[in-house]
Write a structure and sequence with these properties.
This protein is mostly beta strands. The protein has no helices and 28 strands. The strands form four sheets. The chain has a nine-stranded parallel beta sheet, with no helix packed on it. Strands 2-5-8-11-14-17-20-23 form an eight-stranded parallel beta sheet, with no helix packed on it. It has an eight-stranded parallel beta sheet with strand order 3-6-9-12-15-18-21-24, with no helix packed on it.
Length: 218
Protein backbone atom coordinates (compact mmCIF):
# COMPACT_ATOMS: atom_id res chain seq x y z
CA UNK A 1 0.00 0.00 0.00
CA UNK A 2 1.55 3.29 -1.08
CA UNK A 3 0.78 7.00 -1.05
CA UNK A 4 -2.56 6.87 0.76
CA UNK A 5 -4.00 9.27 3.31
CA UNK A 6 -6.31 8.45 6.22
CA UNK A 7 -8.04 11.27 8.15
CA UNK A 8 -10.66 11.30 10.93
CA UNK A 9 -10.97 7.54 11.48
CA UNK A 10 -10.61 5.30 14.53
CA UNK A 11 -7.52 3.61 13.09
CA UNK A 12 -5.83 5.42 10.27
CA UNK A 13 -4.27 2.18 9.02
CA UNK A 14 -5.05 -1.17 10.65
CA UNK A 15 -2.84 -4.22 10.20
CA UNK A 16 -4.74 -7.05 11.85
CA UNK A 17 -3.44 -10.30 13.33
CA UNK A 18 -5.32 -12.18 10.57
CA UNK A 19 -2.72 -11.11 8.05
CA UNK A 20 1.06 -10.93 7.73
CA UNK A 21 3.84 -9.41 5.64
CA UNK A 22 2.03 -6.22 4.70
CA UNK A 23 4.07 -3.35 3.23
CA UNK A 24 3.08 0.28 3.82
CA UNK A 25 5.10 2.96 2.04
CA UNK A 26 4.74 6.74 2.18
CA UNK A 27 1.28 6.84 3.71
CA UNK A 28 -0.12 9.58 5.96
CA UNK A 29 -2.38 9.13 9.00
CA UNK A 30 -3.68 12.39 10.42
CA UNK A 31 -6.37 13.36 12.95
CA UNK A 32 -7.38 9.76 13.66
CA UNK A 33 -7.59 8.09 17.06
CA UNK A 34 -4.52 5.92 16.26
CA UNK A 35 -2.37 6.54 13.22
CA UNK A 36 -1.03 3.05 12.43
CA UNK A 37 -2.29 0.11 14.50
CA UNK A 38 -0.33 -3.12 14.09
CA UNK A 39 -0.95 -6.78 14.91
CA UNK A 40 0.50 -9.89 13.27
CA UNK A 41 3.91 -10.60 11.78
CA UNK A 42 6.37 -9.56 9.12
CA UNK A 43 4.98 -6.12 8.36
CA UNK A 44 7.20 -3.45 6.81
CA UNK A 45 6.37 0.22 7.31
CA UNK A 46 8.60 2.73 5.53
CA UNK A 47 8.46 6.53 5.23
CA UNK A 48 4.98 6.83 6.70
CA UNK A 49 3.83 9.80 8.80
CA UNK A 50 1.45 9.90 11.75
CA UNK A 51 0.53 13.39 12.93
CA UNK A 52 -2.06 14.99 15.20
CA UNK A 53 -3.73 11.71 16.17
CA UNK A 54 -5.75 11.59 19.41
CA UNK A 55 -3.85 8.60 20.82
CA UNK A 56 -0.51 7.39 19.44
CA UNK A 57 1.13 7.57 16.05
CA UNK A 58 2.22 3.92 15.73
CA UNK A 59 1.05 1.09 18.00
CA UNK A 60 1.95 -2.60 18.11
CA UNK A 61 0.41 -5.30 20.31
CA UNK A 62 1.61 -8.58 21.80
CA UNK A 63 0.99 -10.52 18.56
CA UNK A 64 3.57 -8.55 16.58
CA UNK A 65 6.67 -10.45 15.49
CA UNK A 66 9.35 -9.46 13.01
CA UNK A 67 7.88 -6.04 12.25
CA UNK A 68 10.20 -3.51 10.58
CA UNK A 69 9.73 0.26 10.91
CA UNK A 70 12.07 2.37 8.77
CA UNK A 71 12.23 6.16 8.33
CA UNK A 72 8.76 6.80 9.72
CA UNK A 73 7.72 9.97 11.55
CA UNK A 74 5.30 10.39 14.46
CA UNK A 75 4.70 13.97 15.53
CA UNK A 76 2.23 16.04 17.57
CA UNK A 77 0.22 12.98 18.65
CA UNK A 78 -1.72 13.35 21.90
CA UNK A 79 -0.03 10.36 23.56
CA UNK A 80 3.03 8.47 22.24
CA UNK A 81 4.88 8.62 18.98
CA UNK A 82 5.65 4.87 18.91
CA UNK A 83 3.89 2.60 21.42
CA UNK A 84 5.10 -1.01 21.14
CA UNK A 85 3.81 -3.29 23.88
CA UNK A 86 4.88 -6.93 23.85
CA UNK A 87 5.73 -8.81 20.71
CA UNK A 88 9.21 -9.73 19.54
CA UNK A 89 11.79 -9.02 16.87
CA UNK A 90 10.93 -5.41 16.08
CA UNK A 91 13.55 -3.58 14.02
CA UNK A 92 13.30 0.21 14.14
CA UNK A 93 15.72 2.21 11.98
CA UNK A 94 15.78 5.92 11.23
CA UNK A 95 12.44 6.79 12.82
CA UNK A 96 11.60 10.18 14.34
CA UNK A 97 9.25 10.89 17.25
CA UNK A 98 8.88 14.64 17.66
CA UNK A 99 6.75 16.94 19.79
CA UNK A 100 4.32 14.28 20.97
CA UNK A 101 2.33 15.13 24.09
CA UNK A 102 3.61 12.12 26.07
CA UNK A 103 6.71 10.03 25.30
CA UNK A 104 8.42 9.63 21.94
CA UNK A 105 9.05 5.87 22.09
CA UNK A 106 7.58 3.50 24.67
CA UNK A 107 8.72 -0.14 24.58
CA UNK A 108 6.85 -2.29 27.09
CA UNK A 109 7.87 -5.91 27.54
CA UNK A 110 8.57 -7.99 24.47
CA UNK A 111 11.83 -9.50 23.31
CA UNK A 112 14.76 -8.56 21.08
CA UNK A 113 13.83 -5.11 19.81
CA UNK A 114 16.66 -3.53 17.81
CA UNK A 115 16.54 0.26 17.57
CA UNK A 116 19.18 2.03 15.49
CA UNK A 117 19.56 5.64 14.29
CA UNK A 118 16.23 6.74 15.77
CA UNK A 119 15.54 10.17 17.26
CA UNK A 120 13.24 11.54 19.95
CA UNK A 121 13.01 15.33 19.77
CA UNK A 122 10.98 17.78 21.83
CA UNK A 123 8.48 15.35 23.31
CA UNK A 124 6.52 16.51 26.35
CA UNK A 125 7.56 13.56 28.53
CA UNK A 126 10.28 10.91 27.95
CA UNK A 127 12.30 10.41 24.79
CA UNK A 128 12.74 6.61 25.03
CA UNK A 129 10.98 4.68 27.81
CA UNK A 130 11.94 0.99 27.99
CA UNK A 131 10.57 -1.33 30.63
CA UNK A 132 10.44 -5.09 30.92
CA UNK A 133 11.41 -7.39 28.10
CA UNK A 134 14.73 -8.99 27.22
CA UNK A 135 17.46 -8.61 24.65
CA UNK A 136 16.69 -5.07 23.50
CA UNK A 137 19.37 -2.93 21.80
CA UNK A 138 19.42 0.86 21.60
CA UNK A 139 22.08 1.95 19.08
CA UNK A 140 23.18 5.32 17.68
CA UNK A 141 20.26 7.20 19.15
CA UNK A 142 19.62 10.96 19.24
CA UNK A 143 17.58 12.34 22.14
CA UNK A 144 17.15 16.10 22.08
CA UNK A 145 15.04 18.55 24.09
CA UNK A 146 12.51 16.22 25.69
CA UNK A 147 10.87 17.80 28.74
CA UNK A 148 11.33 14.86 31.14
CA UNK A 149 13.92 12.07 30.92
CA UNK A 150 15.84 11.45 27.71
CA UNK A 151 16.18 7.67 28.11
CA UNK A 152 14.45 5.85 30.95
CA UNK A 153 15.28 2.18 31.67
CA UNK A 154 12.63 0.94 34.03
CA UNK A 155 11.30 -2.15 35.86
CA UNK A 156 13.17 -5.26 34.84
CA UNK A 157 14.41 -6.51 31.50
CA UNK A 158 17.76 -6.34 29.70
CA UNK A 159 18.89 -3.55 27.40
CA UNK A 160 22.19 -2.92 25.60
CA UNK A 161 22.80 0.80 25.08
CA UNK A 162 25.70 1.20 22.70
CA UNK A 163 27.49 3.15 19.99
CA UNK A 164 27.38 6.90 20.10
CA UNK A 165 24.05 7.74 21.63
CA UNK A 166 23.60 11.50 21.96
CA UNK A 167 21.37 12.98 24.64
CA UNK A 168 21.01 16.76 24.77
CA UNK A 169 18.91 18.90 27.10
CA UNK A 170 17.52 15.80 28.73
CA UNK A 171 18.42 13.13 31.25
CA UNK A 172 19.30 9.48 31.04
CA UNK A 173 17.85 7.77 34.10
CA UNK A 174 18.60 4.27 35.38
CA UNK A 175 16.02 2.79 37.76
CA UNK A 176 18.08 0.36 39.85
CA UNK A 177 16.62 -2.94 40.99
CA UNK A 178 17.92 -6.47 41.40
CA UNK A 179 15.97 -7.91 38.48
CA UNK A 180 17.51 -5.70 35.81
CA UNK A 181 20.67 -5.92 33.75
CA UNK A 182 21.61 -3.04 31.46
CA UNK A 183 24.93 -2.78 29.63
CA UNK A 184 26.26 0.49 28.27
CA UNK A 185 29.22 0.82 25.95
CA UNK A 186 31.28 2.74 23.41
CA UNK A 187 31.27 6.48 22.91
CA UNK A 188 27.92 7.46 24.31
CA UNK A 189 27.60 11.22 24.79
CA UNK A 190 25.16 12.78 27.22
CA UNK A 191 24.98 16.58 27.36
CA UNK A 192 22.93 17.69 30.31
CA UNK A 193 21.49 21.07 31.23
CA UNK A 194 21.66 21.27 35.00
CA UNK A 195 18.46 20.31 36.82
CA UNK A 196 18.39 20.75 40.58
CA UNK A 197 15.91 17.96 41.22
CA UNK A 198 17.69 15.15 39.32
CA UNK A 199 21.11 13.53 39.39
CA UNK A 200 23.42 14.12 36.45
CA UNK A 201 24.04 10.87 34.60
CA UNK A 202 26.80 10.45 32.04
CA UNK A 203 27.57 7.37 29.94
CA UNK A 204 31.15 6.90 28.83
CA UNK A 205 33.36 4.02 27.72
CA UNK A 206 31.46 1.08 29.18
CA UNK A 207 30.58 2.84 32.43
CA UNK A 208 27.45 4.51 33.74
CA UNK A 209 28.44 7.21 36.20
CA UNK A 210 25.86 8.92 38.37
CA UNK A 211 26.67 12.35 39.82
CA UNK A 212 24.43 13.70 42.54
CA UNK A 213 22.57 10.39 42.83
CA UNK A 214 23.34 6.92 44.14
CA UNK A 215 25.38 4.21 42.50
CA UNK A 216 27.52 3.54 39.47
CA UNK A 217 27.48 0.66 37.04
CA UNK A 218 30.16 -0.90 34.84
Amino acid sequence: MKNNQSVNNTDGFLLSSDGSNHTLLQNEARDNYVGFSMSGSGHQLTKNTATDNLSSGFTGDTTCTGVTLTNNEASRNSQYGFDLEGGSGYVLTGNLAGHNFDSGFILAGGNQYILSHNAAVGNYSIGFHLFGGTGHQLLRTAVVGNRDTGILLDTGGTVLISQSNIVRMALLKQCHDSEKSHRNSERNIVRHEQEADYPEIIIHRRHLTVRGGAGSMA
